[in-house]
């Protein structure tokens, strides 16, 4: 199981965790930081997550590139090559990483990210209905 | 063969598309539902919910039973979905090759004006007719259980129905 931290401005992180729990029952597989909802200093929480990896691969999701949460994460992650940081986090990418059985590599992450983009919803063009026979082939 | 027959009033949705098709390793999904089989908008939403690489067939309950009994499908692991217990019972009574029936989500968001409903566990809210169908289902020689997502334990429906 890949170790995962989600850190956001406000309750996005715990909100993603809530969706994850409803969809997969795996909400407890992620650590979350809801920054700035109170006066709590969350930097030690980032440190703790990285320390507890003990050299294993970890993935940190942040909400906004260049945002302060992302900045604090980048400062802590410096020199830790076992930690990947993903920003602009959305629910599909978190789900893909949580459900990924294998250990995450950079190439794998790039593939999952490419398949998790925000998109304009349009009616599917391929509207062909399968026949019983082609379904059972 | 049917690897799992799932009763879920949302048919294909997040839990099913993301988690169960992976868990069950089923290349084919069959939605057995009379309304979906005749409603193009519903078909469109089901197609959008189908994970990449999986085949989807949307059929009326009677036509789906023909698909499940087609000898060509004997070696194919199929994930079958109905949105109510009555349809699942009909399939279970007419198809021999079913590994298990998962009665997952039923009736929680249904119109409550049509008489009394019976709560079974936290995710099943059944009318008299659906409750009777569920009791019939547990009499068949197929495991009938509830497991909303794979990380939940399997709960036996027969034991959930005690005193109902």
List the helices and strands and how they pair.
The complex is a heterodimer of chains A (137) and B (164).
Chain A: E1 3-9, H1 12-24, E2 30-35, H2 43-53, E3 58-62, H3 68-77, E4 83-86, H4 91-99, H5 106-114, H6 132-136
Chain B: E1 2-8, H1 14-24, E2 28-32, H2 34-38, H3 40-49, E3 55-59, H4 61-68, E4 78-82, H5 85-94, E5 101-105, E6 118-120, E7 124-126, H6 128-139, E8 144-146, E9 155-156, H7 157-160
Parallel strand pairs in B: 1-4, 1-5, 2-3, 2-4, 5-8
Antiparallel strand pairs in B: 6-7, 8-9
Descriptive notes:
Chain A: It is an enzyme of class 2 (transferase). The complex is a heterodimer of chains A (137) and B (164). Chain A has helices at 12-24, 43-53, 68-77, 91-99, 106-114, 132-136, and strands spanning 3-9, 30-35, 58-62, 83-86. Chain A is an alpha/beta fold. Chain A has a single domain, classed as Phosphotransferase system, mannose-type IIA component (Rossmann fold). Chain A is elongated and about 60 Å long. Chain B is α/β, with parallel strands linked by helices and 164 residues long. Chain B has seven helices and nine strands. Chain B has helices spanning 14-24, 34-38, 40-49, 61-68, 85-94, 128-139, 157-160, and strands at 2-8, 28-32, 55-59, 78-82, 101-105, 118-120, 124-126, 144-146, 155-156. In chain B, strands 3-2-4-1-5-8-9 form a seven-stranded mixed beta sheet. Chain B has a two-stranded antiparallel ribbon with strand order 6-7. The longest helix of chain B has 12 residues, at 128-139. Chains A and B meet through helix 1 and helix 6 of A and helix 1, helix 3 and strand 3 of B.
């Amino acid at each position: 199981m890949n170790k995962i931290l989600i850190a956001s401005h406000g309750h996005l992180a715990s909100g993603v965790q809530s969706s994850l729990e409803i969809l997969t029952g795996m909400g407890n597989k992620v650590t979350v930081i809801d920054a700035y909802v109170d006066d709590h200093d969350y930097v030690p929480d980032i440190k703790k997550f990285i320390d507890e990896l003990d050299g294993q691969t970890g993935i940190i999701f942040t909400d906004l590139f260049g945002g302060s949460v992302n900045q604090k994460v980048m400062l802590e992650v410096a020199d830790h090559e076992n930690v990947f940081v993903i920003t602009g986090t959305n629910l599909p990418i978190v789900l893909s990483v949580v459900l990924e059985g294998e250990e995450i590599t950079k190439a794998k992450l790039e593939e999952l990210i490419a398949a998790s983009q925000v998109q304009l919803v349009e009616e599917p063009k391929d509207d062909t209905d399968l026949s019983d026979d082609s379904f059972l082939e | 063969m049917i690897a799992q027959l799932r009763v879920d009033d949302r048919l294909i949705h997040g839990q099913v598309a993301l988690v169960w098709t992976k868990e069950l390793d089923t290349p084919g999904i069959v939605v057995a539902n009379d309304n979906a089989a005749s409603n193009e908008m519903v078909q469109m939403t089901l197609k959008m919910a189908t994970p990449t690489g999986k085949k989807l067939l949307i059929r009326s309950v009677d036509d789906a039973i023909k698909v499940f009994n087609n000898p060509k499908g004997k070696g194919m692991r199929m994930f079958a979905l109905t949105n109510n217990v009555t349809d699942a019972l009909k399939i279970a009574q007419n198809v021999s090759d079913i590994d298990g029936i998962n009665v997952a989500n039923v009736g929680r968001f249904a119109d409550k004006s049509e008489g009394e409903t019976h709560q079974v566990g936290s995710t099943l809210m059944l009318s008299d007719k659906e409750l009777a169908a569920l009791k019939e289902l547990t009499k068949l020689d197929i495991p009938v259980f509830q497991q909303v997502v794979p990380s939940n334990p399997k709960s036996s429906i027969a034991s959930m129905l005690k005193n109902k």
